[in-house]
Write a structure and sequence with these properties.
Number of domains: 3
CATH topology of the largest domain: Immunoglobulin-like
Structural class: mainly beta
Oligomer: single chain
Largest sheet: 8 strands, mixed
Distance between the termini: 67 Å
CATH class of the largest domain: Mainly Beta
CATH architecture of the largest domain: Sandwich
Strand order of the largest sheet: 5-4-9-2-1-10-13-12
Length: 634
């Protein structure tokens, strides 16, 4: 269930009590159109958020979801989050069979209560209660009801009637009730304006949708927030832990964030002197920044801290100095303090992190951030520092924080900026491979692959795994059965753009297949493109390629002297707005050289262009599966 409730993004679904009366939740009552491509159906839901004052509100959550098949079971768990600011007043649940008959009433004693975070959090008051149904027969329906009391809030709950693929919605609504004269803002996406009802004491805003069909996942889709119904809302003025603020503009939200940093940048005289001595004789500000970053990585570690205002305010720099740990906020603040000690100006920067996180809604200032990093503006460039990862290369932002809007927190308020973007020519995978074939088609291979830029992100975790885990990774990822790894090595190279070099030595039995006198030789051993999406599907959403890349493969085959080439595929060269693909196949004596280049360009394209893109992707998929044919001459 999507009943996750956090400090500033609350999600859940509800339904009116009067609608429950007489409701059987029979699967037969679900329209056939809502079962198409659906693993689950939200039957009835409603969400009511009532503001009592600047620091007080209630949230009532009720939802009924029918689980249609095993894949839908990911949506059957009831999970409710709470903390000292968000308390649970009541909760209950029920389970119904396919005919709508009640088969279990879930009591409070059935729920488990535990910390909402893993062991890396040292200070955290977020907890959760949860219940996982154990129902043998599909389909079935899970219903729950929760009422919360909020004692301090920044945003209102965000409403997404559905936030995942393959779930349809029969009925869902969201209601915000505020005191008359209360000032707040709201913005709806892909949904009509709300019904507004005013009385002498309150104003009510209500959104509703019905009969929303399940959305199927599409390759290169935008963030779901772009095409699914969403409502966001926030007060113009708020008070959180005695810190009043406004967020009607990004400047004002930055001013509130800035006051949380006041007085928290003080270091001991000893540390200041140590930093200054460490960079003595270094004039280049880039190298000074590098030295400070190296010191940070070797002397601190990440620990989550989200107690109360700690969800927004960092621990003081001298606390991190003493303990050697902190969360993203504390380590970012500490890094800025170290940089300031050696005369380097930097900014505490808020960002919404995640590989596929939606970008900021720039026209709606509010709390949209989940992470803090450091921005170091220099004369010709900006250095970005991720302070929570002791292994992150200097100045590198991975896929979690690259190429998105962020908020610089300055003394004069918030300033929107954009983080580092990596081009397709920086995000490279360059592979050189040799394969020696014997008379029976067995292959002995050496593979050297260089991963750079964001493709470094794909393999960087391997650097720090145990050798046996690294080896198991290769056995899982290399697409051959019964092959043998004779040697492997992976190491990071000192390059301006992060780079990893991977070396493999393999023995691949029956790499080439034999049929009579002929040997069939797959030319692309390790980097075949696979388009899993069904052909000819009607495209619903724009095409969004978030990150471009460039793959370059060269494979040298040596085959036995008594074979000659009977057939080799034609060279291919394809150029489209989305990317380019080419293969060049040459031969001499008992050698074949296969060269493949695939470039994919980042960008956004209308859905009407998908047919052209699909043609391109299927062309390269077919090409990647082509084989040369060798024939034995005696």
């Amino acid at each position: 269930m999507r009943a996750a409730l956090f400090l500033f993004i609350l999600s859940g679904f509800l339904f009116h009590t009067d609608k429950i009366i007489g409701q059987t939740f029979s699967v037969a009552d679900i329209p056939d159109s809502l079962k198409i491509s659906a693993h689950a159906v939200i039957r009835l839901s409603e969400k009511v958020f009532e503001v009592r004052g600047k620091t007080s509100a209630t949230l009532t959550v009720r939802e009924a979801t029918t689980i249609l098949d095993d894949s839908g079971k990911d949506d059957d768990a009831i999970v409710v989050y709470y903390n000292k600011k968000i308390t649970i007043k009541s909760y209950r649940g029920s389970i119904f069979d396919a005919s709508g008959k009640l088969i279990k009433t879930i009591k409070s004693s059935d729920f488990k209560d535990e910390s909402a975070v893993s062991g890396f959090s040292l200070y955290d008051d977020n907890r959760k209660i949860y219940y996982r149904p154990m129902v043998a027969s599909l389909p079935y329906t899970v219903m729950y009801e929760v009422e919360y009391q909020l004692n301090g809030f920044i945003n209102f709950p965000e409403w997404m009637p559905v936030n995942e693929y393959s779930v349809s919605v029969q009925n869902s609504s969201y209601q915000i009730i505020v005191p008359a004269g209360y000032s707040f803002r709201y913005k709806g996406f892909n949904i009509p304006e709300p019904e507004v009802v005013s009385t002498d004491k309150t104003v009510s805003y209500r959104w509703e949708i019905a009969g929303m069909k399940a959305v199927e996942d599409e390759i290169f889709s935008p963030s779901p927030e772009e095409f699914l119904p969403v409502v966001i809302a926030a007060p113009d003025e708020f008070v959180f832990e005695d810190y009043p603020g406004r967020m009607d503009t990004w400047r004002n939200f930055g001013l509130w964030s800035s006051q949380l940093l006041e007085g928290r940048n003080v270091l001991s005289d000893e540390t200041v002197a140590k930093m200054q001595a460490m960079v003595a004789g270094i004039d280049d500000p880039v190298e000074k920044t590098r030295a400070i970053y190296d010191f940070l990585q070797t002397t601190t570690r990440y620990v989550s801290i989200t107690l109360g205002i700690g969800g927004f305010q960092p621990f003081a720099a001298n606390e991190v100095e003493k303990t050697g740990y902190g969360d993203c906020k504390a380590l970012t603040n500490y890094t800025r303090s170290l940089l300031a000690a050696v005369g380097i100006n930097s900014y505490y920067t808020l960002v919404n992190a995640g590989n596929n996180a939606h970008d900021l809604w720039l026209d709606f200032p509010c709390q949209q951030f989940s992470h803090a990093i450091v921005s170091v503006p220099l004369e010709h460039d900006t250095i970005w520092l991720e302070c929570t990862d002791n292994r992150q290369p200097f100045g590198f932002l991975g896929m979690g924080t690259d190429n998105r809007y962020a908020l610089l927190v300055t003394d004069s308020g918030g300033v929107i900026t954009r983080t580092r973007s990596y081009t397709f020519s920086e995000n490279t995978q360059c592979r050189n491979m040799t394969i020696d074939l014997d008379e029976t088609g067995n292959g002995t291979a050496t593979v050297n692959t260089r991963f750079s830029g964001l493709q470094y992100d794909n393999v960087s975790d391997l650097l720090y795994q145990r050798p046996e885990d690294q080896k198991n990774h290769y056995y899982r990822s290399i697409p051959y059965s019964n092959f043998q790894i004779n040697h492997f090595e992976i190491q990071q190279e000192d390059k301006p753009v992060p780079t990893i070099l991977e070396q493999l030595s393999l023995y691949i039995p029956a790499y080439a297949t034999l049929s009579g006198k002929r040997m069939f030789l797959l030319l692309n051993p390790l980097n075949q493109y696979n388009l899993s999406q069904k052909a000819g599907k009607e495209r619903k959403n724009d095409i969004v390629i978030r990150r471009g890349f460039w793959d370059a493969d060269t494979v040298e085959f040596t085959f036995p002297q008594d074979y000659r080439i009977e057939h080799k595929p034609e060279n291919i060269s394809i150029s489209t707005p989305f990317g380019e693909y080419s293969t060049t196949i040459s031969s001499e004596n008992n050698h074949i050289r296969y060269i493949r280049h695939l470039k994919l360009f980042s960008g956004r394209y209308p859905a009407s262009h998908y047919s052209e893109m699909e043609t391109f992707l299927r062309q390269l998929q077919r090409s990647d599966q082509q084989k040369a044919v060798l024939i034995r001459e005696n």
